[in-house]
Amino acid sequence: MVTSAYLRAANQPPPLDGYNLFSQDRPLVEALRRGGAAAREDECAAFGRLCGGEPLELGRLANEHPPTLKAFDRFGERIDEVEFHPAWHDLLRIGAEHGLHAFPWADPEPGAHVARAARFITLSQTEAGVGCPLSMTYSVVPALRADPSLASEWEPGLAARVYEPGLRPPAEKAGLLAGMALTERQGGSDVRANETRAEPLADGAYALTGEKWFCSAPMCDVFLVLAYAPGGLTCFVMPRVLPDRARNGFHIRRLKDKLGNRSNASAEIELRDAWAARLGPEGRGVATIIDMVVHTRLDCVLGSTALMRRAVAEATHHAAHRAAFGRLLAEQPLHQNVLADLCLDSEAATATALRLARAVDDGDDVFRRLATTIAKYLVCKATPALVAEALECIGGNGYVEESVLPRLYRESPLNSLWEGAGNVNALDLLRAAAREPESAQALLAEIALAEGADTRLDTAADRLRTELVDEDELEYRARGVVELAALCLQGSLLVRHAPPAVADAFCATRLGGDGGRAYGTLPRGVDCTAIVERHRPQLDA
Length: 541
Ligand SMILES: Cc1cc2nc3c(=O)[nH]c(=O)nc-3n(C[C@H](O)[C@H](O)[C@H](O)COP(=O)(O)OP(=O)(O)OC[C@H]3O[C@@H](n4cnc5c(N)ncnc54)[C@H](O)[C@@H]3O)c2cc1C
Prior knowledge:
Layout: H1 4-7, H2 26-37, H3 41-51, H4 54-64, E1 68-72, E2 78-83, H5 86-97, H6 103-106, H7 112-124, H8 131-144, H9 148-159, E3 178-181, E4 197-200, E5 206-216, E6 222-229, E7 232-239, E8 250-255, E9 266-279, H10 285-321, E10 323-324, E11 327-328, H11 333-362, H12 365-393, H13 405-411, H14 414-417, H15 422-435, H16 437-448, H17 455-469, H18 478-497, H19 500-511, H20 528-535
The chain binds flavin-adenine dinucleotide.
Residues 179-183, 187-190, 214-216, 258, 261, 266, 414, 417-418, 421-424, 427 line the site of flavin-adenine dinucleotide (FAD).
């Protein structure tokens, strides 16, 4: 703990940079070890050191200089390109060279997905926007494997640890990125409302025509697209540039002016006879693309975990260096209560995120299916409130752009919205539990691993079992059920793996009814100092 005397000079904390974003995150390091990736700890530490340096500044620059659309060249020819600040390319290069977009597919050693998850959480703290193309590229590979010939054509480029910006034929590039285009104006959650048509061509491929209302990272090399073929809604693989160097029929109408995620481009696009190969059978588009969505949902959890961690790091650091009314904020009981309460959600998110990544390593699809859905719901939904409170912890400075908290705050609602908004996620839990009861059993079995260790968790788990089989107004109650399920999963993980002070405070407040609606309502007897110190980054390490 820094002493009060040190601070009286200016009473402003030193900037929080130049520290190891991975090694200083103790819950993350511990989760990596128990996730079977201890052998990769040194690599993750080196990456954490790297990200704690210049990339923090690159993140700021990439946001302050958002991408612009260059629809035409100087001769009036359509080029449909997006121009980014060099900081965006630098961050994406760092991500690609460290394999965040695919290394577990190319190097499927035990713990590879866990290590990739830890790095994703680390890089996302510098800037969340680059996570979008990195995540979509990571997620497209399992979906492509539905068609071995398409997989063998695309996977080497997608899994290569190379970032090559610019539109060129895929065969001429050493590294490729992938995106997806599902959402249309008339329907995003309900993709059956899609109107994009796919006309079969003589060579077995298809020509896609229609509009897509959201298409992020439009400078990617290839996209998975949903469109109606004669046999129904179907998934397609659509390159941006054709082998003869002609641009495919992919036109950018405009870029969205977004709340946050400003370093990344999200476009409205028009497809005009765009050449595409079919992935999976006609009429099975949603079933085919779900293999991609389940992985992007994992990355939503990782991305929100990163936002929480950065916010908690900033708030705990500030409190250790800022005094008010004669004492450091970190020494004031009420402020300790607020900070420790924030740390609980950050730690629960970290434990959950890496447990989900371990399920990918284990090939445990039955557990992953439901657990990812419920974790996405709770972790992503909790993030804006946590970031807002962390912002307040920093006082007026927290409301100022330079503090990074405004950027985190603007980003924070996004992961809950895309890849299935809150209600859609909640309804997914019910669907999955009904259609694949073994996935609900796997979730309950994981929760039960902590049985007997905490009565509040046991009682909540009993309630969950009852709620899941009670069909009365189940759709109406879905959010309540998914929240309870996610809290039970987090409680079970913390009881088994976190320090007792963390697990006990979590169970008391999140499961035992001993917490309030705002942060800072932990009950008496919680060792707040220990919890906060566990989460506070040390500048000299
Ligand atoms: C920054 C950004 C980038 C994006 N990038 C992409 C991209 O790259 N590719 C892509 O395909 N899409 C992208 N999207 C689109 C995103 O996935 C959709 O916006 C999202 O799926 C929601 O669809 P919608 O906007 O049509 O809302 P709607 O589907 O109209 O949903 C509106 C609300 O209704 C609720 N709702 C829907 N159905 C039900 C129901 N049955 N019961 C109860 N409530 C319900 C939802 O939870 C939501 O709160 C992006 C969105 C954003 C904001």
